[in-house]
Amino acid sequence: MFKFFNRVKTVVSSELNSALDKAEDPVKMLDQFMRDMAEDIREVETAVAKQISNEKMLKRKADDAKAMMEKRQKQAEQAIEAGNDDLARRALQDKKEHEATATSLNESWTTAKNDAEVLKSKLDEMKKEYQEMKLKKDSLKARAESAKTRTKINRTMSSIGNDSSKQGFERMEEKVMRYEAEAETSEAMSYESRSLDDEFEELNKQNGVDDELAALKAKMNKE
Fold this sequence. Notes:
- It comes from Oceanobacillus iheyensis (strain DSM 14371 / CIP 107618 / JCM 11309 / KCTC 3954 / HTE831).
- This is Phage shock protein A (Membrane protein).
- Belongs to the PspA/Vipp/IM30 family.
- The chain is mainly α.
- It has 3 domains: 4-160, Helix Hairpins (Orthogonal Bundle), CATH 1.10.287; 164-192; 197-223.
- 93% of the residues lie in helices and 0% in strands.
């Protein structure tokens, strides 16, 4: 159970490569791997907590058995002083039973304590490796996002100068030039379609301006 991180590392590596090969989103896959690892850590934390609780229970029972040993020892001494050997004998017999219980509980407590220390050490290693992989995940996510952005920009830039874009641009340019030619043609046709009276009217307007200009000059010279 506590070697799962080695297994997870292998799975992460193989699954990530598989995800990339299958065009899956590596960012989502990495997030899922981290969630799975966090769940494993929570399970181990629960196991460690139970082991520590079991260790404390065994310690408490061993201490209780030891306390009863000491109590029966004093009671046996008290019975002897009172001249009651039978009571002293029964107290010593019960003391021996508590002594055996205390010895057994102490052995179990020592084993449980060692197991708890090992489990806590393993849990610390797992949390450390989790943090290291979290940092690596953040780096991989940033690299993946950067790569996707660069790809998107490159595709956009490449589409700007492709044949269809150029052809469309040239087609619009030709259309504008055609509009301009049509405008020039319509102006020329309008000029050519003037009547004789229109031309004389324009000539009279020009002559009227010339007469007004001459009168203005004469006035200014007199002044």
